[in-house]
Amino acid sequence: MTAQLPPSIRPAVRTLWDYHDLHHVLKPSDVGIGLGSHDLGVSTCTAQLYLAGTIPLIVFTGANAPTTLERFPRGEAVHYREHALSLGVPDEVILVEPEARNTGDNITLTRELLRSHGTEPKSLTLVSRPYQQRRAYATCRKLWPEVETVQCASLPLALDDYVAGIGDADRVVNMLVGDTQRIEVYAEKGFAIEQPMPDEVRDAFRQLVEAGYTSRLI
């Protein structure tokens, strides 16, 4: 594994990275939803938003994927909760949804969990990996249309810093390529709303596929 991007693909990776980051200016919202993944930074960001007063309630959602079983053996959401507690978030403001296995599940199961607690939020902050923002937003807008405001957040890391933190450049690039494909495929399947995709993003996606970054393609 290497924690540095090969110079030959870095411009294309940067193009996809910028496309998926929605650059939302965050405002206070009713609930923060930490979307499960291999990236513990999602929990860190969610905790920071709570401690800053941006969100009063947190839902961590996620079971396991093959890539997270070893790191989070008790489930992504459970480990996210434990990490947030270690950062000073009080237990009483955290709900755990431990069954979701994809982003659609994250949204629908979180909605059901909140309803079971008598909460019908009008505004949400989706907290994810930086390159999951656009897909998370499109999915939430499709599956939870009654929410008035959806904003996305991630740890504000530069691309190279994020890759170094994950410690595996190939994993990051493969995930970026997979998420880019899913923007259109999931909209076609009715799982998400449509999103614009500029030509330079399509070109960068094709370059990375041709370079062999295909392990996360559908």
From TrEMBL:
Residues 45-152 form the DUF218 domain. It comes from the Bacteria. InterPro entries: Cell_Envelope_Assoc, DUF218, Rossmann-like_a/b/a_fold. This is YdcF family protein. It comes from Kineosporia corallincola. The lineage of its organism: Bacteria, Bacillati, Actinomycetota, Actinomycetes, Kineosporiales.
